[in-house]
Design brief:
Helix content: 10-25%
Number of strands: 6
Shape: flat
Strand content: 15-25%
Number of helices: 1
Strand order of the largest sheet: 1-6
Largest sheet: 2 strands, antiparallel
Length: 83
Amino acid sequence: MTPRIRNIAVGLVVRDGRVLAEEHAVVPGHHRFARAIGGGIEFGERAEQALRREFREELGVELTSRTARRDGKSVRPRRRTRS
């Protein structure tokens, strides 16, 4: 079987320094791990549409336009510099 590359859209929900993640297992009954909410981008779907769909399917919530980012960049907390 030829490996395939699949584009995904994921979103981080951060509140009070905590990150919402979903528990997932590649194979049922095996080790579980945490991952960001999201999933595969369907053919003809934009990343933002996929992310909205995934949040609707997995959490039953609708994202507002103000909460969705689509810059594709990693977001990291700012580091404090010593004065």
